[in-house]
Amino acid sequence: MATIRRPFRRWALRLLLLVVSLAFALLLVEGALHVLWPLDDVIPGQDDDWRNLEKGVKKAFVAVFVADDELGYRPVLESASEEWFPYGDHGTLKNPYPLEKRPGVQRLLFIGDSVVFRGKFVAAVRELLGDDKHEYWNAGVEGYSTLQEVAYYRRFNRAIKPDRVVLVFHNNDFRVTPVLFPDKDGNLTLIHPDRPVKDLNPWLFANSQIYRRVVNMRISQMPKYTFEENVRDARDALEELAELCKADGIPLDVVLLPMFLPYTQWGEEYQRSRNESLKIFGGLGIDHVDLYGAMGRAFDAGVAVQESPADRLHPSLKGCRFMLQDVKSRGGWKLLDG
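RE: above sequence
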């Protein structure tokens, strides 16, 4: 019996030492990565949210977004039991306006990504036009591309019967942005339209550099659309939106946002996106408002154009005010003439 137990004990001891050694090695690697080579930008712009998951943000993301077969993800629409939901039944942020249209009041629907959602652009338009003759419906969704925005409009926003649609088109709207959020069961989910990666661990994602690299590797192995494919999809979506608005007999305005950087910092990628955007608008005959020149004049005037320092994607309220006032003074957008 003793001859049997001794080999077993030696084997168990070796296994235990191996496990302890591996655990110690992993801790060393984790510590070294945290100090020497931290990976913070798995999904650009979303890391701060995920660091705060354990502080209450998790509940909001579970409630606000759900996976969607066509859109990749979409906001949860209003629930009678959750009055704090930001989105109403028709996919717009809640507002005080009745669904029934009021005589003599023009219903403006703004669609777009985070720039629209955050409300500063819409607020600047509202300051210029006032509340007597206009309603301001905000259908912005963080991270959406033009492809998603148009599908979202068709399925949800169109039902409010706007009198005018304003699409705020960003330089990065050719690309579909992956989004991370916990599902209803608390599992962290990476949603990328047509290419989901699911069942990620929120705690590990927030705390483990090794785990973040595993997630990053899985993202990098996803099929990637080429720039030309993205441009084609954006053009098709814009053509569909123009046709929908034409069928409803309402004007469509497209506002082309610049990158909120001095011209010298744009680089080839942003210039290429801008030029392709202008080609699409011209080819489809879509009325558009280009804020490129107004943005440059805002920087020259010393206006704090960016929502926060070094934010190249989101304008501040002051920046929006300046650019729209500049456009209005030059007669560049009929809507602003009242």
